[in-house]
Structure formats: C-alpha cells, structure tokens
Amino acid sequence: MSRSRGLSRDYGSMLLGRVDEGSRKQRVRIQLLMTSTIVLAHVIGILIAIGLATVGIPEPSFLRRDLVWVNFVAFPIYIVMALVLGVLVGTIMTVKSLRWSIDESTPTAVDVKRTVWARRRLTALQGLLWAGAALMFGIWYGVIDSGLWPKLVLIVLMSGMVVIAIVNLFLDVLLRPVYAKIVQAGYKVRAGTVRSRAINAWVIGTGIPLLGIFILTLFAAVGERVSVTSFFISVTVLVTVAGAVGLLVMFLFSWDVTGPIQNVQSGMSKVRAGEVGPDVDLVVYDASELGELQLGFNSMVAGLREQERMRDIFGRHVGRDVAAAALRQDPELGGAERVVAVIFVDVIGSTALATQRTPTEVVAVLNRFFQVIVEAVENHRGLVNKFEGDAVLAIFGAPIELDDCAGSALAAAREIADRLDAEVPELKAGIGVSYGNVVAGNIGAIQRFEFTVIGDPVNESARLSEVAKEEPRLPFASERTVVAAGRKEAARWCERRATVLRGRSESTKIFTPSASIA
User: Fold this and answer.
1) Which of 104, 244, 365, 408 is deepest in the core (most CB within 10 A)?
2) Which of 2, 24, 38 is nearest to 174 (CA)?
C-alpha cells in the first residue's frame, strides 16, 4: 500500500516514516530514535536523582567531604559506563531479535516471540542498570554512613522507574513498523493494554511523586527537626518534578494512544466522503486493543468495498436506476401502469456476421455496438432494460419518471443512429421508437425476477425496428411518440409514410428525422 504524501502518518507519527519505506532506512530511523530515547530517558532520570538528592530530600545530605570521590568520580564513571552499556547491549539484542524485519522476510512464530521479548529485555536492561546503581552505591554509602543508604536507594529506584516508564512508552511507538509486519503476516501480538499503559503513566506521573512527598514527610517526622522553609523548598521541588515528569509521561501516553485513534478518525472521514478504495485501509501497527480497532476499521471498509462492488455489478446487470430503487425498498413481484417511451434496436444480418468472423471478433463488434446504445440511452436518462441476443430494449420513463419521456427517447434514437453509422460501420441496425401505456415492475418468481415493461409500445417498437431495417441509418418512430414529445424535439421529425406493421390490422404512421425527408 503506497503513500505519496510527503509527511506520512502511516504509523501514527511522521517520525516513523512511510509504510513503503525500505527496511534499511526504516531500521536506521528506528535505531536512531531508540538510542536517542534511551539517552534522553537516562539524562532525565539522572537530573531527577540529582535534584531529589540535593534539594528535594536534603537530609541526610550527600554533600560531604568524605563523599567527594564517590559523588564526583565513581558516580560519573558509572553513569557513562551504564549509558554506553545500555545503548550497545540494547542495540545488539534488538537487532538480533529483529533480524527478520531487517532482512524483509516473513516472520515466524519464533520471530514474533523474540520481537516481544526484545522490548521486554531492553526495558529490563535499563532497570537492571539502575538497580545495579542502587545496590552498588547503597552499599558504598552505607559503609561510610548507614543513614545514607535508605535515601540513596529510594532516590535511585524512583528515578529508575521514571526512566523505565519513558523507555517503555517510547518503545510502544518506535516498534510500530515492526508490529505492522507481524500483524500483516497474520500473527497477533499483545505488548500491553491501554489500561496497563494508563496505569503505568499514573504510577510514574503521580504515584511515585506522591510516594516521594510521603517519604519526605516521614523523614521530617522521625528525623532531626526540619525548618518550615526547608520543608517547603523540598516539597516545592518534589511537586515541580512531579509536574514535569507527569506532563512528560502523559504526553507520551497520549502520543502512544491517540496515533491509532487519529488514523481511524482520518479513515472514517474518507469513508464519509464516499471513499472505500484500498487507499483507505489503515496500517495495523498497535499491539493493544487499539490495533483491534484498526483491524475492525479495515474489516468494515472491506465490507463496504464488497457492498460497493456488488452494488456496481447489480447496477450493471439491471441498470443503475433499477438497482437504486431496489436498494431503497424491498422489491416485490408485480407492477403498475406507467406511460413510457420505448426504443428497440435490432442488428441486421447478425447470422452472416457470425459466419464471416470468429466468435471473439463478433463479441468485440457487438460490445462496441452495445456501448454506443448504452451511452446514448443514459445520456438521455433512459434505462437499457435488456440485451436480447443482438437486440436491445431501452425504456424512458420507468422506473424513474421523466417530464418528456417521448422527447428523450426520440433524441436518444437520433444519437444512436448517428453514432452507429460513424463508430460501428460494420453493423447495421433497425431502430424503432414507440410510446404509450405499459405495466412496469418485477416479473418472474419470488426466487428470481427482473424489472421490465410489458405492453403494446414494446411490441410496436420491435415491429418498427423491423421496418426500419429498410433504412438502417434512420430511426423509425410512431406518430403518437412524436405527438407526445416536446415541441422542440417533435419539430425535428416529419412523417415518412404509413404502413401496416406485422401482426396489426391498421396502418401506423411512421416518422423519421426531418433531414431524412427528401
């Protein structure tokens, strides 16, 4: 499914590129975003830890002479090593697990499992690095002063949880192209529900800051007396951190959730505008219930596309107007009297044509012949009711009423005669036009019926087409058709002669276009 737009939102964000983007370019894009995310998340976690350690929870203080080498040597070294290790090991694990996607191969069940675990391992790796810092420096600070380790462990774990949450939310978005390939291959992958993401966002954005404020209050209550000013500053710092982290986490959560919803919203707008083609289908990339929503949308569009296809086929078989009338209400057997005009067109010498040409050539010529008739009839709001071998029956005034059905039929007959002579010269045909009362409706059995008209005008038009074979370039119309037509169209026709049509006892006055009268 290709996309031509410059800023693509196939995956819910233009940062992730287009669905038709090459796998190598996509891998580089994802890896750069993933590395930047890991680094940024760790930087945020480090800044939070420093802020909490120095101002947020000032007591017991880390700013002591005997801790200088730990604070300014050991900690920076560990941070740099943890960042490098996190990025390198995370990259190696991720690339190994997503090798099938990089190689553009179809994933197997094992590949899907590895992909799901790649995300979990990457998240666990970040947690392990922060847990290692809590354990290592907790012991280190505890050896120097046993009162320091609870504060350090608390701050490091709180900061680490923020880092893990940020990385986890980002991975939900960054792995969308990979999830899309898995879904396309027919597998289902669940990498967390919307509820779990919301709870995760609440814990990081609200729960942990509230826990920090509670711990601060507890320290103030059981520890040495803390001044009101110091306590106010500490709470202010914690509230500021909580606000900033909460805003960031909620932004990531909303970014994660609203992407698929916006895709569905955009698709629904196209459907409302009448578009149901393949371009409306969404890329299913979300691994939660939102992915099911995208799948449901695609299923709905596929159903609408099939309905549109059936409607089109139905309209081609029975006529657009008949199809529209049938779809508006349940069709029933029987009919009603209507005043209509009828055109009957019959090919001259079809038997000879079949002996002179191959069946394929005959069909090709007849299709061009019918194409001219269908276009001319529809141009004048008529209905091609049926093809009877090499003959055509067209109706004007049913099922859609026309103000001047006789005039429309006469105009269509003139157009058919002119176009057949110019566009299908190898075929000649007799064209008869009649007008009068008929019964129009559904004829047949309840299991199978068709819309048609029955009455004398139908028979008369067929008989007129037989007589018209004497002058195949001219349409022949009955007198009552010309009399019933509007003044402008009637003026184009003149009486040619009177004749007794086959099966009748009285003569019928025949009219042809005025230019044909000598």
Assistant:
1) 408
2) 38
Assess contact for 37 and 167: CB atoms under 8 A.
yes
Residues 287, 290, 292, 294, CA torsion sign: negative
pLDDT of residue 334: 63
Query: Which among 87-96, 181-190, 418-427 has the top mean pLDDT?
Result: 418-427
pLDDT at 263 over 80: yes
Q: How far apart, in whole angstroms, are the C-alpha atoms of residue 390 and residue 420?
A: 14
Token pair 């069709």 is found at: 331
Quick one: which of 23, 173, 26 has its CA closest to 106? 23
Quick check: helix, strand or coil at residue 357? coil
- For residue 414, the domain's CATH number is 3.30.70.1230
CA atoms within 13 Å, Cβ hemisphere of 380: 27
Percent of the chain beyond pLDDT 90?
20
DSSP-H helix ranges across 279-404: 289-318, 320-328, 350-356, 359-379
Place of tokens 């391992």: 121
Candidate from 122-131, 283-292, 453-462, 504-513 with smallest mean pLDDT: 283-292
pLDDT at 316: 54
**If you write DSSP's letter for every residue of 49-71 in order, what string do you get?**
HHHIIIIIS-SS-S--GGGHHII
How far the first Cα of the chain sits from its last, in Å, is 63
Rounded-to-integer distance, Cα 245 and Cα 362, Å? 77
- DSSP E strands in 397-458: the ranges are 428-445, 448-454
Q: Which of 229, 262, 295 is the last residue of a domain?
A: 262
Number of structural domains in the chain: 2
206 vs 460: which has the higher pLDDT:
460
In this structure, are residues 450 and 387 in contact, taking their beta carbons and an 8 Å threshold?
A: no
Verify that 228 and 350 share a domain, yes or no: no
pLDDT of residue 352: 75
Other CB atoms within a 10 A radius of the CB of residue 415 amount to 18
pLDDT at position 487 is 92
SS3 state at 73: helix
**Phi/psi-derived region of residue 388, left when phi > 0, alpha when psi is between -120 and 50, beta in every other case:** beta
pLDDT in tens, 54-88: 777 777 777 778 788 888 888 888 888 888 888 88
- C-alpha span between 315 and 307 (Å, rounded): 12
Tell me, what DSSP letter sits at residue 411? H
**Which among 213, 196, 181 is positioned nearest to 283, based on CA atoms?**
181
Tell me, yes or no, whether 427 lies in a domain. yes
Residues 256 and 357 in one domain: no
pLDDT at 331: 62
Assigned token pair, 343: 């055109």
